[in-house]
Amino acid sequence: MRTLARALARLLRESEAELPEELVLHALVAGFDVFDPTTDPNSFFTLFQKHTPMGPEFKFVGLHAPTVVEADQYDSLRNLEGIKESFDQVDKLDIIVTSAAIWADEHSTFRKRMLKSPGCFDTLDKAGCIGDMLWLPLGPEGPLTVATRVRTMTLVELTELTTRIKAGKHVVLVLGPCAMCRKTKAQILRAILTSKDRLISHLVIDSLSAREILR
């Protein structure tokens, strides 16, 4: 996702098209890796600076919150000062950009985080979790709503995506092979594309996963 953000920043700087005067960038989730702050979506904002007098003005809405919280504390935490302001801006989103990972990949950040929380991994595994998008669990037929002890703090729920797409918003899914083992993400993509609810409006996919899907 950081690579994509960097590419978008470059294209905006180089574009000769008529762009909006103002672009507001939102962090939809908080960072998972405390040892690598560059993976925190809040850090992506540093890539977007106005380099030309004709370019858009960038504004930012960060999410300064714990990455994973106790599920029964989620509602109270999202209403805390400093976090509530980010949630209050959600309805202004026009484009949601996200990625996904497969549950079977041992390098999946979501999978590793659920393994650290007693009972959460087993609960999701038994419920048929096959991966995650927006760091929220997906099953073969769409979003998994099974209760776990902890959950990710994210501005947008997977179950909200269909309504947002119907309202004319865009949900862009960007998928590439695992950076560590190069496993494709065809399994999670297949579930997203065949979900009873429409979860994405646009797709950017690597050729290996695309060929696997077409086979």
Walk me through the structure:
- With 215 residues, the chain is of the alpha/beta class.
- The chain has one domain: 3-Layer(aba) Sandwich (Rossmann fold).
- The chain is built from 8 helices and 11 strands.
- The strands form 4 sheets. The chain has a 4-stranded antiparallel sheet with strand order 5-6-7-8. Strands 4-10-11 form a 3-stranded parallel sheet.
- The model has no long low-confidence stretch (mean pLDDT 92).
CATH architecture: 3-Layer(aba) Sandwich
Instruction: Kindly state the number of beta strands.
Output: 11
- Helical amount: 25-40%
Low-confidence stretches: none
Please write the string of helix (H) and strand (E) elements.
Answer: HEEEHHEEHHEEEEHEHEH
Radius of gyration: 17 Å
Which band does the percent of strand residues land in?
15-25%
Short description:
The protein contains eight helices and eleven strands. By secondary structure, the protein is of the alpha/beta class. It has a single domain (2-214), classed as Rossmann fold, CATH 3.40.50.1360.
Topology at a glance:
Layout (H helix, E strand, L loop, with lengths): L1 H13 L7 E5 L30 E5 L6 E3 L3 H5 L5 H5 L6 E4 L1 E3 L6 H8 L3 H7 L4 E3 L2 E4 L2 E2 L6 E3 L8 H6 L3 E6 L10 H9 L7 E4 L1 H8 L1
Parallel strand pairs: 1-2, 4-10, 10-11
Antiparallel strand pairs: 3-9, 5-6, 6-7, 7-8
Helix pairs in contact: 7-8
Which key phrases capture this entry?
215 residues, alpha/beta, Rossmann fold, four-stranded antiparallel sheet, three-stranded parallel sheet, globular
